[in-house]
UniProtKB/TrEMBL annotation:
It holds the Pfam family DUF34_NIF3. It comes from Mesonia algae. Keywords: Metal-binding. This is GTP cyclohydrolase 1 type 2 homolog. InterPro entries: DUF34/NIF3 (IPR002678), DUF34/NIF3_bac (IPR017221), DUF34/NIF3_sf (IPR036069), N-reg_PII/ATP_PRibTrfase_C (IPR015867).
Length: 364
């Protein structure tokens, strides 16, 4: 087992292509060809996390938050970030961060929050744009099914709960091979008219490279004509935040007490109570002030997130109950999600769940 085997599996769950542009995800420290002795799964990577990895004979840390975010210009140990990186390198420990790739994953951070709250009918709160593409290509009739099968096997043609989706239209293609060409059909220097099918398939952004490789490998022509375009269609399975419903409505006060228990926090900062029953719940783990308007537009009764500032609470405008449960608290179950996923993928390998509480905020 090497580092790349673990990280590839993680990227099947949460493709890095969907991480936010500002983020720093992927393998941050170490060699992806290094043999893995064990994996420690943590929310953060601090010095105590590296020590915990050493104690458990783990040489790969899979963390939610990236330890390197703004970039490093030196490694002298003057900051906690530099000390973590130095210690990891000294002990040949690789560090991988998944962060907003998992935030934007349908079965990621926010789904885990919904699971803790037992919410049903879950939907993405803020779908990510430009995540669906369309491939158009032209194939001789007799080769059409072979090419389609290869595209489907590579991940193209999936739309929601459907796969093997495509559209085919008959037509005629023309080409004139020059003397340097090696045409499969036709002759050099002669115009060739060929009965072809125009094929359209949709594909997710993260599989574009493998779909194009499959196209070129399965297509009979020496030169393959194709085009890829981004679609404006909303992708209901990629995006940040989530909305779901409680099985039974709750009074606001009862619900606020409930989420204090669920998130194991002594305090929940919230906007003015509205006197409404809580049925529809919007959630967004981590800093989520940017999602307030989307939560209101979704018709949610409450929006659970973290890091709301003073003026953010005014944005409730008597339309929604805003509840700030704390950054760490909103994301605390993420490491359990990653640990469970990796344990199922690699049942006979040492996947260790960090026991360290890395929350830097204390309450008195």
């Amino acid at each position: 087992m090497i580092v790349k085997d673990i990280t590839k599996s993680l990227e099947d769950l949460a493709p890095l292509a969907y991480a936010e542009d500002f983020d720093n995800v992927g393998l941050l420290v170490g060699d992806d060809q290094q043999e893995v002795t064990g994996v420690l799964v943590s929310l953060d990577t601090l010095e105590v996390t590296v020590d915990e990895a050493i104690e458990n004979k783990c040489n790969l840390i899979v963390a939610f938050h990236p330890i390197i975010f703004d970039g490093l210009k030196s490694l002298t140990g003057k900051s906690y970030v530099e000390r973590v990186v130095i210690k990891a390198i000294q002990h040949n420990i690789a560090i991988y961060a998944i962060h907003t790739a998992l935030d934007n994953c349908f079965k990621g951070v926010n789904d885990m929050i919904c699971e803790q709250l037992n919410l049903h009918q879950r939907q993405v709160l803020i779908p990510q744009s430009k995540t669906i593409k369309k491939l158009t290509t032209y194939v001789p009739k007799k080769n059409t099914q072979k090419v389609l099968d290869a595209l489907f096997a590579a991940g193209a043609g999936n739309i929601g709960n459907y796969d093997h989706c495509s559209f085919t239209q008959e037509g005629k293609g023309s080409f004139l091979p020059n003397n340097e060409a090696n045409p499969v059909v036709g002759e050099n220097g002669k115009l060739q008219i060929e009965e072809e099918n125009q094929i359209h398939v949709t594909l997710a952004t993260h599989v574009e490279k493998q779909v194009l490789s499959a196209l070129k490998a399965s297509h009979p022509y020496e030169e393959v004509a194709y085009e890829v375009s981004s679609l404006e269609n909303t992708n209901q399975h990629i995006g940040i935040g989530m909305v779901g419903e409680l099985k039974n409505p709750m009074d606001e006060s009862d619900f606020l007490a409930h989420i204090k228990t669920v998130f194991n926090t002594g305090v929940v900062r919230h906007s003015n109570r509205l006197g409404n029953k809580i049925k529809k719940v919007a959630v967004l783990g981590g800093s989520g002030a940017f999602g307030i308007q989307a939560a209101i537009a979704s018709g949610a009764d409450v929006y659970i997130t973290a890091d709301l500032k003073y003026h953010d609470f005014f944005k409730a405008e008597a339309k929604i109950l805003l509840a700030d449960v704390g950054h760490y608290e909103s994301e605390q179950y993420t490491k359990n999600l990653l640990h469970s996923y990796l344990t199922k993928k690699f049942p006979n390998f040492a996947i260790v769940l960090s026991q360290k509480n890395t929350n830097p905020i204390q309450y008195s």
